[in-house]
Design goal:
With about 200 residues, the protein is α/β, with parallel strands linked by helices. It is built from three helices and eight strands; from the N terminus they run ααβββββαβββ.
């Protein structure tokens, strides 16, 4: 979608705007039997509808395009049952993960990823929530966590198996391209700033 292209259009500064007074109502086709005239659709109302749609399109980071009629749909998240591998829209809500994901490229990975992918999160449940995984040094499949693996690699946190130790945010390949080991943050304290190293391990 783009703004109207037609004879006798005007610039934004000359566009009709809503009247300062009057009672908002609803349009009618009229009724000759009761001598009720049809509603005249004023230009300001057309402008208002157009600009509402344009605001959503531009606000979502898209460029208006007169050859496309799906930009408004792409401006809002779709709810999907599982994470798709093909791009549907910029943002989706994945039901089985219970989180929003955005289409993004990180390193060698292009696909849907949570903005919080790889973030250390405090939990409040005995077991991980659908959008979480325990940082307890578990070996997981690359195919199950491609975005997570890409995020760690892009952040420089992939180390050799001999360099992987508990208490760091590093991951390591177990079988390259197939499985990798998550960080093991058990028995650790968070240190937000400073250089006082934790040597408990």
């Amino acid at each position: 979608m783009d703004r109207i292209i037609a004879p006798y259009t005007v610039t934004a500064g000359a566009a009709d705007v809503a009247p300062a007074t009057g009672t908002p109502g609803y349009a009618t086709d009229g009724n000759p039997a009761t001598n009720t005239p049809a509603t005249l659709w004023p230009s300001y109302q057309y402008n208002a509808i157009q600009e509402e749609i344009m605001a959503a399109i531009i606000g979502s980071g898209q460029t208006p395009d007169r050859t496309k009629n799906n930009l408004l749909m792409s401006a809002f998240p779709l709810v999907v049952p599982t994470t798709p591998t093909l791009k549907l829209t910029n943002t989706i809500f994945v039901e089985d993960k219970q989180c929003f994901m955005v289409w993004i490229t990180v390193g060698a990975y292009t696909g849907y990823m949570s903005p919080e992918c790889g973030m250390w999160m405090d939990g409040w449940t005995p077991n991980p929530l659908p959008f979480q995984v325990n940082a307890i040094g578990t070996t997981v499949n690359n195919a199950d966590y491609p975005a997570l693996y890409a995020r760690y690699v892009a952040s420089g946190l992939l180390v050799s198996s001999g360099s992987w130790v508990p208490g760091t945010l590093n991951i390591c390949d177990v079988v390259a391209g197939t499985t990798f080991k998550l960080p093991d943050l058990r028995n650790m304290h968070k240190r937000m700033t400073g250089t006082n190293a934790d040597t408990a391990n």
